[in-house]
Amino acid sequence: GQNIDQPTEMTATEGAIVQINCTYQTSGFNxxxxxxxxxxxxxxxxxxxxxxxxxxxxxxxxxLSRSKGYSYLLLKELQMKDSASYLCAVLDxxxxxxxxxxxxxxxKP
Amino acid sequence: GAVxxxxxxxxxxxxxxxxxxxxxSLDFQATTMxxxxxxxxxxxxxxxxxxxxxxxxYEQGVEKDKFLINHASLTxxxxxxxxxxxxxxxxxxxxxxxxxxxxxxxxxxxxTRLTVL
Lengths: 109, 117
Known about the structure:
By secondary structure, chain A is mostly beta strands. Chain A has strands at 3-5, 9-13, 18-25, 32-37, 44-49, 53-57, 60-65, 70-75, 84-91, 97-99, 103-108.
């Protein structure tokens, strides 16, 4: 079956750095997405990786290793507004998005 | 750009009634629209994918006669929950894709919270 694994919850301190990991096992691979979702709101797009390596976008970076079926989202200089759930999703060979359950990130002052 | 709206934002209805949710792409043409359902503290569950002018493709376990999807134009898709029951209470989210199949990137609407009494 297809599977996306990410930690259920993480806690970090304001101003610090946090890395949210995502491992996947899917039938084929056509890219990996990271979305941010605040409570009671719809997800917003953060990043899309289809090639190995690190993509940096401001305070957020996303890394992909296709051979390892692994990605991480790196958040730097954490702010209180970064408290949200972070969803990892993989596009499989049928171009269907397979969603992880999300990682709830709690930022403490 | 790439704004998607949903209406209504929230709705409360009695059991047995039907509820229609609209999803509009405001500043682009969406070749593909997706409908998701999300229960509290769970991830998104894809319900169906629809391409303009053709029938929606439903995910396994989703009743197509209960969740009617119409994608009449490149900017509008509607989801009708027919004969709603309390177990249908959920957060319904649509998203729109700008490329055929919509896979490159999905732009999400703000969601509709449905409560069935």
